């Protein structure tokens, strides 16, 4: 109860401070609007250029059938065909220069002509967007299905022609009905037993983890995490202010234990952080939509969003106590806050989307809680993963919270 | 009267520095006890230990019969602390501040409201209760500061330099509040100050503290009585042991001694008197402890005149705590 009294008093003081209110609730929204708008514009700029995804083709057949297939893929207009050798294809995939490679095996043409099954192999790139890979696979599959049908109907008609040729002139063994029935039968057989099989070599699951998120959406989680952690310094400043004016001495002299005192000082930041996340998420879901920008799909995972919000708020509050314990002067609080909160925000993917950051920093961002908070939000909102898929990020946020609390309790000066 | 506070050999060290060097004293129930000493003497450190803000390095104390180290929560309920700093939340109103400090002591509902209204009356701030503290004058802030220490009705109130930086009118208000609390409610008070007038006015007894030690402890009357009739400082052009011995044997003179430097001119609002002659720093100064200031001055000046000793300065200090402190430590309270 006494802890709640301290928390309510701190909230009362905080809500009287317009500068802090602006920093906590308005500034994040301004950042989000500017960055979402800019990133959307970048995305639209890319769309105007209409660069077709490249499909590397290793033609080991070199026959009429392979040429027909490649011609059809080019005519489809969805993919840019890039012929290459088997030796070069891996580097093209690794460097993300092609979304996938199509290997046409030797004997492809002969197989089609002899109506024996053949197999095409599609290999996906490590960093390829799975949606584009899927589109490429559908294009190849569709053309292959047409070729199967065409080949089998032609073969069937040829066979019927030969049979007709050997029959007596006055005896017509194929009526119109029998020809149509034969065509239908071939059509069904083409679907059930495709002449051209397609095998995709890269697992879908691995590809999904590397999915590049929608850039315009990346701003909301990034700045949510940045500003919620920045709010952690409010705890440190509030404790320093209490010590400066002498009220902390009065609190220590009162019949209130140290745990209640610390909880009372942490609680306002926790509440503020939750309100902050609520405001930012609501703005991300509704405000961005009204502004014609990509909205945050919060309706897809409200429970997950609430759980992540609680853990981020907890971690931010714990970090605030750690800063209060480590910093002895107002300047030190400012310095530590700048170094820790902005530095960790930068390293943890608050300004640069994680999938880009990880390409040049590797696993380094994992050392800051911001990374796990961003990853949890990205996975939930952008990649559409479930709670079970993000458990590691949640556990890591909890671990960081415990570490910060431990530092805070260990180094906190009550005198 | 039973003792509400018994301090036993309290010590506070910071590394090699000893801020409080084994202080012992007691305060009776219903007493206003003064801790008089210059800044840095160890008064605030002593209060901080007694109120549980800091832990003593050694020694202990009992408040209301409870040990301050072992029965902290009971002790904290008895204590009220008015810190030297304005320990208030400036953007909140006086009432909001008092409500908060009341809740910290477990008060709530109607009881809290009544207590807050009561302490606002005690410090004469009822009409400004809803004003924001930041907009108050220094004196009004000091009064809210005192009210915050009273809201839970402590049995023992620690007032740490409560009049620091306030105007005379507010100082009188504070004096009246403390006297009323003591007289009407029997509240015991430990009052620290480096203003001897305050301690003389408010306290029954006082301890004079310097460099972490109590150097004198008694009733105000007895403390002042240490000096008898007062002290006279006489600057002369020459002095030796014979002159000092003969001065000591003069009627109305208790003792005489050579001081290295004359004391600085006293503050205009003090009870001391002085001549217009400022002693040059090079001249020796004789300190005369008198049984009767007036007779001693006549006898000393007569002796010096007879022996052709030139008087370069003359300072007569009436007997008060300031002169007692000067007598005991060789320095002024506000140095």
Describe the structure.
The complex is a heterodimer of chains A (415) and B (335). Chain A is an alpha/beta fold and 415 residues long. Chain A folds into 2 domains: 2-43 and 212-411, no CATH class; 51-209, 3-Layer(aba) Sandwich (abc type-2 transporter like fold). In chain A, 70% of the residues lie in helices and 7% in strands. Chain A contains 17 helices and 5 strands. Chain A has helices at residues 2-15, 18-49, 64-76, 86-94, 108-113, 130-166, 176-192, 204-209, 215-230, 232-245, 247-253, 258-290, 302-326, 330-347, 354-361, 369-382, 391-411; strands spanning 54-59, 80-83, 100-104, 118-124, 196-200. A 5-stranded mixed β-sheet of chain A has the order 2-1-3-4-5, with helices on both faces. In chain A, helix 3 links the parallel strand 1 (54-59) and strand 2 (80-83). With 335 residues, chain B is α/β, with parallel strands linked by helices. Chain B has 2 domains: 3-224, P-loop containing nucleotide triphosphate hydrolases (Rossmann fold); 228-318, Alpha-Beta Plaits. Chain B is 34% helix and 28% strand. Chain B is built from 11 helices and 15 strands. Chain B has helices at residues 43-50, 72-78, 94-104, 109-122, 138-150, 168-185, 196-202, 220-225, 241-248, 293-306, 321-329; strands at 3-14, 17-28, 32-36, 58-63, 66-67, 79-82, 156-160, 188-193, 205-210, 213-219, 230-236, 253-259, 273-274, 285-290, 311-317. In chain B, the strands form 3 sheets. Chain B has a 6-stranded mixed β-sheet with strand order 6-7-8-3-9-10, with helices on both faces. In chain B, strands 12-14-11-15-13 form a 5-stranded antiparallel β-sheet. In chain B, helix 3 (94-104) crosses helix 4 (109-122), helix 3 packs parallel to helix 5 (138-150) and helix 4 (109-122) crosses helix 5 (138-150). The relative contact order of chain B is 0.14. Residues 267-275 of chain B have low confidence and may be disordered. The chains are: A alpha/beta (415), B alpha/beta (335). At the A-B interface, helix 1 and helix 11 of A face helix 2 and helix 3 of B.
